[in-house]
Amino acid sequence: MIYLNRIKKIKNSSWNNIVGWAFAFPAIAGFLILNLVPMIMSGYYSLCDYNIIGKAEWIGIHNYIGLFSGEKGSFWISLKATALYAIMAVPANIGFSFLIALLLNRDMKGRAFFRSLFYLPCILPAVASSFVWILLMNPDFGLFNTILEWLHLPKSQFFWGKGSVLPSIVFMGIWSTGSTQVIFLAGLQEIPRVYYEALEIDGGNAWHKFWKVTLPMVSPTLFFNLVMGIINALQVFGQAYIITEGGPNNSSLFYVYELWRQAFKYMDMGVASAMAWILFVAVLALTALVFGTSKKWVYYEGGDES
Amino acid sequence: MKRRKKPSYYLNNIVFYLFICILAIVCVIPLYWMVRSSFMINTDIYIMNPFVIWPREMLWSNYADALKAANFGRYAVNTMIIVTGCLIGTILTSSMAAYSFSRIKWKGRTVCFSLILTTMMLPGTVTLIPQFLIWSKLHLVDTYWPLIIPSFLGGGAFNIFLLRQFFLGIPKELDEAARIDGAGPLQIFWRIILPLAKSAMVVVGLFTFLNNWNDFFGPIIYLNSKEKFTLALGLLQFRGDYSTKWNLLMAGSTIVAAPCIVIFLIGQRYLIEGISLTGLKA
Question: Which fold has domain A62-297?
Fold first, then answer.
């Protein structure tokens, strides 16, 4: 009897194996075909001289040397533009969406309305919203410069100025941080009210509440948003493609835009693949860095026990 | 026990609502500007200080002109073909994978799920070039297949993750009961899990719709001939031809953006719940 049961169990588990695989098959195939194989392929192409038309020719680490030495393409320029953008955009996006989430977390009338309103911009097509921003930021007849003039502030060249193009793109990006806001808000609403009440009894004010309860409790969410924010910032592309074409004077020549140019304008798939791998390693390293420091500042409830 | 509210409470509230209303207005300005400009005579757009708050006369003809100039009708059909394909593929295969990863115990399940999750962090640009080369070897560049087929291969890690989270919340007892009644995994998936996960499926559907409707990176790379362009790509092209006709450009932008806004207004509750669900447990 026991023996029979066991056979049934084995049969059952192997049946489960087959069914489990079958259901997950499309996703697993997708992982292999769309991710793993292309990763390996681009690793190989990055070591080749390859321009679609001809055959891929092995040249070792020549593409990497060319990139780092500045002989091939505008690697360093694009790296600098992307780093500058990320340094501005990540804190700006996180700060702004955290602020909105804190505001919406209050006891208030019309929360759902405001939440949807602040979320709305991030579902708009990038092309359409970029066009509107081009119009708003037009140096001669844009709304922004008109307002600046009213306020007797100096006008700006916005997307068309060497120094102002990156801040302008960052500002435009803040506008569409809806999903980050919603993730923050969800994190805030998870915080048990008791903690605030306990602090109130102890005589804590709003300031204490924020530093002693809100910030530690929301730190896992903050961590998640930080990681995703960095990954997204390093891959900024759309604004450069639609609005600036990397200009003026290469100040918005973002890394992925330069990569796209190498691949689809100059058809240099080898150099583009090398750039892709460098980006991959950079993202990996930065994510690891954030993970590594997270133990110091991310607070997980019941983290000691598990 | 009711406490009397101090005057500072009211002052706080006034400041708070004033602040949030200003933010809301700033947030709406670009949308307002888009719609406003789309109804104006082009020369009025160039008038600044003071600017024209609302068109003196609503020029609906701008929309007719934009439609005529850029063949948005054709682009809309093309976009719908791609979006429909992606919707079917994503909803089907991501829910299948989520079902497998949440309800069936099989060897290698955790490994496979973790591997798929890591692709969420993988920059899309890393796989872009080989993917393009594969499609061009298959002579499928300038067709819709490179834009649709990936949806049938799991539909993206984010969707699988979201659906799995949701499926985990459905009581296991339902499966057991169905199994005792003689239902196989396919019936359990189709008759029990999917109907109960309707709201999560709606979220996946909404995201898939919006992402593919708005996507321009994929179409830029895979579509060459103008008659195959999507709305986003068509709009981009439109600017090249009519760069100074801001009223037409804004009308075009409104045409492309309007369906997104409508879809968002219909499904916003689901959408925001969906993001909260994934953000929380990540």
Answer: MetI-like fold (1.10.3720)
What pTM was computed for the model? 0.90
ipTM: 0.89
Report the residue from B16, B27, B96 with minimal CB separation from A23.
B96
Q: What is the mean pLDDT of residues B126-155?
A: 94
Rounded percentage of chain A residues whose pLDDT exceeds 70: 94
Q: Out of B107, B136, B256, name the one closest to residue A127 (CB).
A: B256
Q: Is A289 on the interface with B (CB under 8 A)?
A: no
Please give the structure tokens belonging to residue B154: 């799991």
Q: Give the side-chain half-sphere CA count within 13 A for A243.
A: 32
Backbone angles phi, psi at A153, to 5 degrees: -105, 155
Q: Tell me the per-residue pLDDT of B198-241, one tens digit each, with 9 for 90 and over.
A: 888 998 999 999 999 999 999 999 999 999 999 999 999 898 88
Evaluate if residue A103 carries a pLDDT over 60.
Answer: yes
Residues of each domain in chain A carrying CATH 1.10.3720.10: 62-297
3-class state of residue A58 by DSSP: strand
Chain centroid to CA A167: how far? 17
Smallest CA–CA distance from A100 into chain B, residue: B20
Provide the chain A residues 61-100 that lie in CB contact (below 8 A) with chain B: 100
Paired tokens of A45? 């192409």
CB–CB of B235 and A125 under 8 A?
yes
Tell me: the pLDDT tens digits for A148-174?
999 999 999 999 999 999 999 999 999
Look up residue B259 and give its two tokens.
């369906």
Cα of A4 to nearest chain B Cα, Å:
19
Assess if CATH 1.10.3720.10 describes domain B62-281: yes
Determine the distance in angstroms separating the CA of B69 from the nearest CA of chain A, rounded to an integer: 17
